[in-house]
């Protein structure tokens, strides 16, 4: 309400152009601004809180009226294993249950979760491999994990995938352009 008792109508956001090419997400889930790592805690919290996607799979950070589109070094999420064994996204949110596990042609592990597709942080690979099991229930050898040869992780079979097909299969745009 204004001081004279009449209702105030909200001011519309100013028209500002979207921003491209400034913000990126690397393979370890680190934000980068013009290639430089973001280290300021407040800015990191802001980026994590305002990270979202458009229907066409372009990921962005909403900065007031402006969308700052994010170039992804691989997937929209980078996953880590939490202390309780659950998966966390690089934004520190629970990723939810896994529905598929892939090993790409470069040996990277990708996990489809309720939050979306995520690259497993490479620092988590030893723990991931320790949880992989062969068809007989025994610990899987690394060669079998990389080949997706009858290996499962937490009951989900490892499936091969080509890196070039990940974005199309999981519906995201790695490098949004105007």
Q: What general form does the structure show?
A: elongated
Uncertain stretches of 5 or more adjacent residues: 1-6
Biggest sheet: strands side by side, in what order? 8-7-11-10-9-14-13-12
- The helix-and-strand class reads alpha+beta
Tell me what portion of residues adopts beta-strand conformation.
Answer: 25-35%
Biggest sheet architecture: 8 strands, mixed
Order of helices and strands: EEEHEEEEEEEEHEHEEH
Fraction of residues in helices?
10-25%
**Count of β-strands:** 14
Q: What does the average pLDDT come to?
A: 93
> What integer value in Å does the Rg equal?
20 Å
Count the DSSP helices. 4
Provide an overview of this structure.
- By secondary structure, the protein is of the alpha+beta class.
- The protein has 4 helices and 14 strands.
- The strands form 2 sheets. Strands 8-7-11-10-9-14-13-12 form an 8-stranded mixed sheet. A 6-stranded mixed sheet has the order 3-2-1-6-5-4.
- The protein is elongated, with a radius of gyration of 20 Å.
- The two termini are 39 Å apart.
- This is DUF2946 family protein.
- Pfam families: DUF2944 (PF11161).
Helix and strand arrangement:
Blueprint: E1 19-25, E2 31-33, E3 36-37, H1 41-49, E4 51-53, E5 59-63, E6 66-72, E7 77-81, E8 87-89, E9 98-104, E10 109-113, E11 117-120, H2 125-131, E12 132-133, H3 142-147, E13 152-153, E14 156-161, H4 163-170
Parallel strand pairs: 1-6, 7-11, 9-14
Antiparallel strand pairs: 1-2, 2-3, 4-5, 5-6, 7-8, 9-10, 10-11, 12-13, 13-14
